[in-house]
Design brief:
Elements: E1 5-8, H1 12-23, E2 28-31, H2 38-42, E3 58-59, E4 62-63, H3 75-88, E5 93-94, E6 99-105, E7 108-113, E8 116-120, E9 122-125, E10 132-133, E11 147-149, E12 164-168, H4 172-183, E13 188-191, E14 201-202, E15 205-206, H5 207-213, H6 227-230, H7 249-255, E16 258-260, E17 263-267, E18 270-273, H8 277-299, E19 321-323, E20 329-334, E21 338-339, E22 369-371, H9 387-403
Parallel strand pairs: 1-2, 1-9, 2-5, 9-22, 11-20, 12-13, 12-20, 13-16
Antiparallel strand pairs: 3-4, 6-7, 7-8, 10-21, 14-15, 17-18, 18-19
Helix pairs in contact: 1-9
């Protein structure tokens, strides 16, 4: 089979790219290993909600039109939105088709699937950034009687064993799971390193409203001195709830979650945590105030600390180790990030960490190859669902020019 462009993945990014190519009358097919929005259907926990408000859920030719613009979509709503979008734009999706290899061939690429092979001049990799949980090597030292899971496997606190839970990682995922698990009655210890703290609501508006209006979400990848670091900054400690509450170390401590430093090693059954937890809190506060200063400057407000969150308050002498053989901990949740999975990619464009080398989504070492759906791909907003609109507009233009 032959087409001009093969898009791998029918999530929001792949479908947005499909719409952009249709607008330019570029023949293409979208290949999906499961159903549309497969990762949202099979690899997300039931209580998860988007970090961004509903009004920000936009895609090419789609804008939120529901009755709760300031709410936050639950997983089932995200799946429904993406599925309806696929039908709305009449995307040429071939579901239940697993891509087995992508290799250079002639003047383009050969994409081999379990349903046959496609030859195309261009390929867009939109398979996502969260295909596999990133678990540190020290996990090998966990005692055998402790259950280890990742957020991809997590389906709610009721599925966990009784007893204490160690959540490793304090970004959005780790903070949310620590809070939810603790409210189920299980004692929770949260081990955290670098944090991105921000209030859910600032001066009466969602923080994403201000970040959008102030142009923060439009900061470009090619305007930063260290884009590699920017792409690995932890996701902000936020949660989407009807009450629009803030989630941070203060709120976690208030409900009884024990906070410790970054997990450094597991040796002889003991988890060892880094010192300097207080400095982590201070640094997260400093970065938060810089963000709020930028917003105040944009809006013409004078700084008013009474409108800002209280400083992070942590135990003066948090534990530096934890005996994993004592029976106190029965489950460890590795909320230590995700990584894409490219074992099927036969084009030599990966760096030593298995990440695709690209320039804002353009894989320069392999002309005609593009990547979508990665954090800070072209702009800061790329990390979030609505970022696919601007990213695909840029990349579709580049792809069309390369064909011409």
């Amino acid at each position: 089979m032959r087409t001009t462009t093969v898009i791998v993945g029918a999530g929001h990014a792949g479908l947005a790219m499909s719409r952009r190519l249709t607008e330019r009358s570029i023949e293409h097919v979208v290949l999906e290993r499961g159903e549309v929005a497969n990762s949202w259907r099979t690899e997300r926990w039931p209580s998860l909600r988007l970090l961004t408000p509903n009004w920000q859920t936009t895609l090419p030719e789609y804008a939120y039109d529901g009755d709760d613009p300031d709410g936050y979509m639950a997983v089932a709503e995200v799946v429904d939105t993406i599925a309806r979008y696929a039908k709305h734009v009449d995307a040429p999706v071939q579901t239940n088709t697993t891509v087995e290899s992508v290799c250079a061939s002639g003047d383009g690429y050969r994409v081999v699937t379990d349903q046959g092979a496609w030859d195309s001049r261009t390929v867009v990799l939109a398979s996502g950034a969260c295909n596999r949980a990133s678990v540190p090597a020290c996990a090998a030292g966990v005692p055998d009687d402790i259950t280890c899971i990742t957020p991809i496997d997590y389906r709610g606190p009721d599925a966990l064993a009784d007893g204490g839970v160690l959540v490793v990682g304090g970004s959005a995922t780790g903070a949310q799971l620590a809070h939810e698990i603790h409210l189920s009655g299980r004692p929770v210890t949260l081990a955290t390193g670098e944090l991105v703290r921000m209030p859910r609501v600032y001066r009466g508006r969602d923080i994403f409203y201000w970040m959008d209006q102030a142009g923060i979400l439009d900061e470009r990848y090619d305007a930063l001195p260290d884009i590699a670091r920017a792409r690995h900054v932890p996701s902000p400690q936020l949660v989407g709830t009807p009450e629009r509450v803030s989630l941070d170390l203060n709120s976690l401590r208030a409900v009884g979650v024990r906070i410790v430093g970054k997990l450094g090693a597991i040796s002889d059954g003991r988890a060892q945590f880094a010192g300097g937890l207080a400095n982590i809190g201070k640094l997260s506060d400093l970065k938060m105030h810089r963000l709020l200063d930028t917003i105040d400057e944009y809006a013409g407000f004078a700084r008013d600390d009474s409108l800002r969150p209280e400083p992070t308050a942590l135990d003066a002498d948090p534990p530096l180790s934890l005996d994993l053989t004592s029976g106190e901990i029965t489950t460890i949740v590795w909320a230590t990030g995700y990584r894409p999975e490219y074992s099927w990619l036969g084009v030599p464009v990966l760096d030593r960490k298995g990440q695709i080398k690209h320039d804002g989504g353009v894989v320069t070492e392999s002309p005609g190859l593009y990547v979508l759906g990665l954090p800070f791909l072209r702009r800061r907003r790329s990390t979030f669902l609505h970022g696919a609109s601007t990213d695909t507009a840029d990349l579709a233009a580049h792809l069309a020019a390369s064909l011409a």
